[in-house]
Amino acid sequence: MKINGTSYRTIWLGADGRVVEIIDQTRLPHEFVTVGLTSLDDAAKAIKDMWVRGAPLIGATAAYGMALACLEDASDKGLARAYEVLHVTRPTAINLKWALDEMMAVLAPLAVKDRVDAAYGRAAEICDEDSEQNARLGAFGAKIIAEHHKAKGRTINILTHCNAGWLATVDWGTALAPIYKAFDAGIPVHVWVDETRPRNQGASLTARELNWHGVPHTVIADNTGGHLMQHGMVDLCIVGTDRTTRNGDVCNKIGTYLKALAAKDNNVPFYVGLPSPTIDWTVADGVKEIPIETRSAREQTHIFGKTEDGAVCEVQVTPDGSAAVNYGFDVTPARLVTGLITERGVCEASPEGLRGLFPERA
Ligand SMILES: CSC[C@@H](O)[C@@H](O)C(=O)COP(=O)(O)O
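Above: the input record for the complex with MRU. Below: its predicted structure, written as tokens.
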């Protein structure tokens, strides 16, 4: 994607081909700062502290984390340690484990001396694959938006939750890829952006990237979507996912489930964009089986923002002494999902739907 005319991915290699460059997303939307990761510990910290976030980008960073680890210790013991250090950084997005397993499958059979180059090679492929998959799913999703536009002959209003855009992936995004493709094709779209408390990935990141791309959008408080749907102001919802089960249950940022319930009650189609590494074929029941990340209560009790004099600071929004809890994700059961938009096409959120697109997994 382009920022002020310059093309960026969210993760890339520095001039030496070894340092891994990222955008520090904790500084957005007010500051654009890039950071060079030079060690396994840097990569683990970047994921855990959410300098990078979003399921596909977490996976891509973990892949490069394994490459950085190989520079330090490419032995079997070193690889096993790196896998463990990275695996525990964030529990919900399955792309993390997927990427680590991909790296291990390539690296484990090799001689130690060959592992550094192979690790950088596979990590780069994982990044390219993510970008291509998202571009493809974006084209399938754009067709859905185009159909709505053809039927209604006016701007299509799309509600999204959290940030499942370019910043959450290597490029394009998942939920936002169809929107970028439709917008670029000249279809008039407008995006309702849920702010997405507590970390405000919608207000800070989705609004930031839609703004960079020039896509019309409006930031709304998280509880606004149901009202908009009751008044015919949402044509469809598109969200991303951190883990989708083989039955089609969708785990995504906390609050997604409530949007899906409101969508069902108002006959608003509810779509989920996902590249295939986000499908966890080992899990059937998302509510029972997906581990939900609990993050620091400080993310709930405090909020970052820009003051009128331009300084970025953190303030407390709750009274001293009130307890707070911060569940990062929830699960939307498959029955509430209209369709899964993947790089192979759109399917029903069901075992049959997913197996139809991915028969090799049957
Ligand atoms: C394309 S990303 C899909 C999801 O990862 C996204 O919707 C999301 O929930 C991100 O959560 P985050 O906690 O910011 O990593």
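Notes for the reader.
The mean pLDDT is 97.
DSSP finds twelve helices and 18 strands in the chain.
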